[in-house]
Specification:
- The chain is α/β, with parallel strands linked by helices.
- It has one domain (2-217): 3-Layer(aba) Sandwich (Rossmann fold).
- It contains 5 helices and 9 strands.
- It has helices at 30-43, 57-70, 103-109, 133-149, 164-175, and strands spanning 2-8, 50-53, 75-76, 87-88, 96-97, 114-115, 156-162, 192-198, 201-209.
- The strands form 2 sheets. It has a 7-stranded mixed beta sheet with strand order 6-3-2-7-1-8-9, sandwiched between helices.
- It is globular and about 45 Å long.
């Protein structure tokens, strides 16, 4: 049997800031670090066999204590980042692409992890233009295809640390429910959704559970 856990990153410094103070690639708040540790402790009982993470720093820092707890390497994929890509500017139409962490920067900070070959010396985003919602939806479709055609045939539990908006798009593609998914409620930091692959398709077991967090650690 193949299982899939979709995990939103822990609270980033941007999550705790108004939009005009946000930066392109923030780390985690102190509270976010606690959320990541709680997630790691809870996931330690879930027999995870594979881990993947977005190249954004907040996702990598969320994956770090989980990987340490589980004694697993992490594969950093260049296609599971947040909608929009790496950019600065909070006003619509004024977003300016930023490079994101380079391959070498990631390697120095996370030396044991596997880095997508698409991530090069100029940064994983390479200052490309802001990604539109439709472009992100098409990317989610490709990731869903990868999960269905490749990951589904690998028995075990696959955990992916990604982002709120992209997670909604990906869940929508896995369930063929693009319009209804955004009405399912907020996605909390480090909340987890579980899928099971059976009868040739992904079936949702539970959505955005934050039971591993105490009430004072739950944030959006």
């Amino acid at each position: 049997m193949t299982y899939l856990l979709l995990i939103r990153h822990a609270q980033s410094n941007n999550n705790a800031q108004p939009e005009h103070l946000r930066i392109p690639d923030p780390g985690l708040t102190d509270l976010g670090q606690q959320q990541a540790l709680r997630a790691a402790q809870w996931l330690d009982q879930r027999s995870i066999t594979h881990m993947y993470a977005s190249p954004f720093l907040r996702a990598l820092l969320t994956a770090e204590p989980i990987a340490k707890q589980l004694k697993l390497p992490v594969t950093i994929r260049a296609d599971i980042f947040e909608q929009g890509g790496c950019y600065r500017g909070h006003l619509p139409g004024q977003e300016i692409g930023q490079p994101g962490m380079s391959r070498e920067e990631i390697r120095v900070r996370f030396p044991a992890w596997l880095i997508d070959e698409k991530i090069g010396a100029s940064g994983w985003w390479s200052s490309r233009p802001y990604e539109t919602h439709e472009q992100a939806r098409q990317r989610a479709k490709l990731v869903a295809t990868w999960l269905t055609q490749e990951i589904s045939s690998q028995p075990g539990c696959h955990a992916i640390v990604t982002h709120g908006d992209f997670k909604q798009l990906l869940v929508g593609e896995l369930l063929s429910d693009q319009r209804g998914i955004r009405q399912w409620g907020p996605i909390h930091n480090t909340s987890i959704s579980k899928f099971v692959f059976k009868n040739g398709r992904w079936t949702l077991d539970w959505y955005n559970s934050a039971h591993h967090l105490s009430p004072d650690l739950i944030t959006l």
